[in-house]
Amino acid sequence: MSTYSLAIHGGAGTIRRSEMTDAQEQGHRTALEQALCAGERVLASGGSATAAVEAAVVSLEDCEYFNAGRGAVFTHDGRHEMDASIMCGATLNAGAVAMVEGVKNPVALSRLVMERSAHVFLCGAGAQDFARDMDVPFEGPDYFFSAFRYQQLEKARAQNRVQLDHSDKFGTVGAVALDLQGNLAAATSTGGLTNKRYGRVGDSSVIGAGTYANNGTCAVSCTGYGEYFLRSVVAYDVSCMMEYKGLSLQEATDRIINHKQVAIGGDGGLIAVDRNGSIALPFNSTGMYRGWVQKGSEARVAIYKNDR
User: Fold this and answer.
1) CA distance 46 to 18
2) 4 contacts 277 by C-beta, under 8 angstroms
3) Which of 206, 264, 272, 293 is most buried by a 10 A CB count?
C-alpha cells in the first residue's frame, strides 16, 4: 500500500450557517484542521492507523467545542459520563469504555483496554480503576465545566427532556484511517446526551454500532442519535453491505444513512474509509463537522450540507 487516508467528524445535526458567528465557524474549522494534522502526522511518518485515529480523536477531545472529553455535556445530576471505543482492522481487536468520569482522554483509555487487558468493554467504576492502574491522566470537574454546557443542562431540566447535543451544534467525535501498511482503524468518543439519566450508554462505545474496522472492507465511525444506531448496528452494517452484497463504500454508506436510517427516524451521519483509501462522509441532517485528507492531497474541512 502506497497511500493513506484519514477522515474525522465532530458531530452531525442541526447546524445552520445562519446560527453561527464568523468566529464560531472559524473556531470549529480550525479545531478540525488541527485534528486532521495530528492524525496525518502519524500516517505520513509511517505510523499505524490505530495510532492515527487515536491522535485525531485526542485532539478533538481536548477541544471544548465538541461533546467529548473536555467538552462533554452534563448528565441530569451535573456530572460528565463519557464513552469511547477504538478498533483495529488488521486484528479485529477492539477496546471500549463507558460511563467514565474524570478521564482526560477516554479514547486513549479505550486503546489501553484493547492492548493492555484481556477484555473489550469496561464501564463505570471498573473502567476508572483500570485507568488508574494504567496511570491514565485524570482531570477535575473544573476542567470539564462549560457555562454553555451548563445552560444546556438547565434548559433540558426545565423542559424535562433529554437533549441530543447535536441540536445545539456540538457533537460526538470520531476518526477513521488507512495507513501505509494497508491497515484500517476507527475510533469514536462522546459525552452522550445532555440531561441523560439511569446510566444511559449510546452507540459510540459499542463495537459494531458506533465503531467498526475490518481490513477486508472498511473502517467506520458514527455520529447521531445513538439509540437508532444501536438498533441498526450501523457501523457493522456498512461492512456487511460491502462484504456480502458487494456494494462500494459510497453505495453502502448512502443506503444506510440516507435510506435505512431515515426509514426508522434516525438522525445523523458517519465517516468511513475502505481498504483502497476511498472516503465517504454521508449524513442526513443539516450539517456535520467533518474533515478528510489523503496522501498527496490538500486537507479539507466542512460543516454544512453544501460545504465542499
Assistant:
1) 41
2) yes
3) 272
> DSSP letter at 66?
S
Q: What is the rounded CA–CA span in Å between residue 117 and residue 242? A: 31
Cα-flanking dihedrals φ and ψ of residue 158, to 5°?
Answer: -65, -30
List the grid coordinates of 141: 470537574
> In the 8-state DSSP scheme, what is residue 167?
G
pLDDT single digits (tens) 18-41: 778 889 889 999 999 999 999 999
Is the Cα dihedral 73, 87, 137, 58 positive or negative? negative
What does the DSSP assignment read for 78-106? S---EEEEEEETTT--EEEEEEE-SBS-H
- Distance CA(197)–CA(39), nearest Å, equals 34
Evaluate whether 217 touches 278 at the Cβ level (below 8 Å).
no
Instruction: Please name the residues in contact with 132: beta carbons below 8 A apart, sequence gap of 6 or more.
Output: 138
Catalytic residue list contains 172:
yes
Give the C-alpha separation, 267 to 135, whole Å. 37
> Are the C-beta atoms of 37 and 31 separated by less than 8 Å?
no
CA distance 201 to 209: 12
SS3 breakdown of the chain: % helix, strand, coil, rounded to 5? 40, 25, 35
Assign a CATH topology to domain 5-304.
Glutamine Phosphoribosylpyrophosphate, subunit 1, domain 1 (3.60.20)
pLDDT in tens, 219-255: 999 999 899 999 999 999 999 999 999 999 999 999 9
Residue 13 backbone phi and psi in degrees, to 5: 165, -150
| Cα–Cα dist 93/114, whole Å | 6
Amino acid at 273: V
Which candidate in 50, 172, 211, 286 is catalytic? Answer: 172
Give the pTM.
0.95
